[in-house]
Amino acid sequence: MSGAAIADVTGVEENGELLRSLDWKGAFWASSGVPAGVLLTIGGIATMIGQPSWVIFIASIMMGFLQSFVYAEIAGLYPHKSGGASVYGAAAWLPYSKFVAPISVWCNWLAWSPVLTLGTSLAAGYIMASLFAPDSAINTWHITLLDLGFIRDKLTLRVNAVSIIGTAFLLLTFALQHGGAAKAANAQKILGIACLAPLILVGFVPLITGDLPAQNLFPILPLVRDAAGHAHFGTWDGYGLTLMAAAMFGAGWSTYGFETAVCYTREFKDPAKDTPRALIASGILCIVIFALVPLAFQASLGLEAMMDPRIGDGSGVALALATIVTKGLGVTAGGAVIVANLFIAMLILSLLLIVMTSMMGSSRTLYQAAVDGWLPKYLARVNSHGAPTAAMWTDLAFNLVLLLASDYFAVLMISNVCYMAFNFLNLQSGWIHRMDRAGWERPFRCPTWLLGLGALLGFVNMAFMGAGADVYGAGTLRNGLIGVLLILPVFAFRHYVQDKGVFPAALSEDFAESPAVKRAGVLPWLALVGAAVVVLGAHSLARLPVPVG
């Protein structure tokens, strides 16, 4: 059906469905937690590659912005669907393979759902770092539940103070979601105005004061470590290029995230206009934050300070950012302590904001995947407020387990393999939709050259993944690809056991009035083969293991 026709049909709120209660500004605020993702990756990437980290984040957010226009077009084809870009991308692959299509949806959820764990655990870590010394008993106390060394060396499931506080934060954000997207977006608007302020201050204060020491930004050379663990500048040789690929791979997980703004298409009052507006507004906000915050962070700390282990694991990032602001504003002595603590508290709220953003987006991905027949039926249930509660409970249970993991950054990078797989499939879906559904109404039409560039960037991301994933630990690429394939038995259960091999009407009706003609022929399959070749080729050329300690 055309976008206008669907909008007319689905404009009436129906029982058991998500409600049309959002405009683009609501979705913008619902997605406003995405910039806080810089807190989850900035420390690890800066510690790994050194001074080029600020350039990496700028390059990555610009790539993400260019890619987002492809998502805006495909979202306009299905204004009645929730769940985000992965759902719209899956529809492009369905005529070619019913087993490839659900990978897009699954990988998007498996990549974004762990944000709940990462955000709440880092917020808990900020609290622990503010209240207790690093060697205090409460910081070292833990109970090991399960050894997961077969997945990654030294990975375990354990209970400690961070996991307990993180669980409390997770339950709080879960409770705020039950009122539906509009109420949650209003809560996020209030939080967003307050919580984006510290990130904006970090970005702009050094620019205003001119406190950007050039020696901390240049030369733009990768950081390498010798056998003894001593850090020094390297060159752009095989090791350096592998580190660059790893940094771009890691940064993409956070910088590309504003595409979550299209998760709410099914809840927009005017989906044709609101979808591209929400996406572009969110993208502009992310460009500002992801360009300026890493620049200020790198310039203020310098190479030597980056070697602090607390920067690498993220627990010291809040204090480092607070110091940038207090120093720039000229606050000293006792006043600096008060301002720093207030700043850290606001950063904690910023992390809870991205957790809310993730729960809203990832639960709607599960919901729409169930409606379309990719995932088990129970995930399609909503409450009286139109919130997808069954999907939210699933998100909650999954992340309560992840909160027990001993290495959150390892979880992030394994899930990022899934995110890059989703990214590739969806960027290719842009040209597949354009070829197969040329006559469908497009409220937003991406320029053809930009559509082609998006497809090319999908292969670039595959190269980053192939070369850089295992920099974050041996087996990261392997474990991530296993995660990608886990959808196959899940989809087989839904499709062949629950649905007896027939897709539900919600999906079939998308193609009934205007069935897609497979004009792309073998090109989608050639794209998949090309992606596999790029990943394997980049992995074989990477200089591993990289000496990063």
Major sheet details: 2 strands, antiparallel
Q: Which CATH architecture would you pick? A: Up-down Bundle
Assembly state (oligomeric) = single chain
Radius of gyration: 22 Å
Give the helix/strand class.
mainly alpha
Strand fraction equals under 5%
Distance between the termini: 55 Å
Overall, the morphology is globular
Number of domains: 1
Secondary-structure element string: HHHHHHHHEEHHEEHHHHHHHHHHHH
| Helical stretch tally | 22
CATH class: Mainly Alpha
Residue runs with pLDDT of under 50 for 5 or more positions: 1-15
Number of strands: 4
Mean pLDDT: 83
CATH topology: Amino acid/polyamine transporter I
In helices, the fraction of residues equals 55-70%
Question: Mind explaining what this structure looks like?
Answer:
Keywords: Cell membrane, Membrane, Transmembrane, Transmembrane helix. InterPro entries: AA/rel_permease1, APC_superfamily. It is found in: Cell membrane. It is a multi-pass membrane protein. The chain has 549 residues and is mainly alpha-helical. The protein has one domain: Amino acid/polyamine transporter I, CATH 1.20.1740. It is 66% helix and 3% strand. Helix 17 packs antiparallel against helix 18. The longest helix has 40 residues. The protein is globular and about 65 Å long. The relative contact order is 0.20. The N terminus is likely disordered.
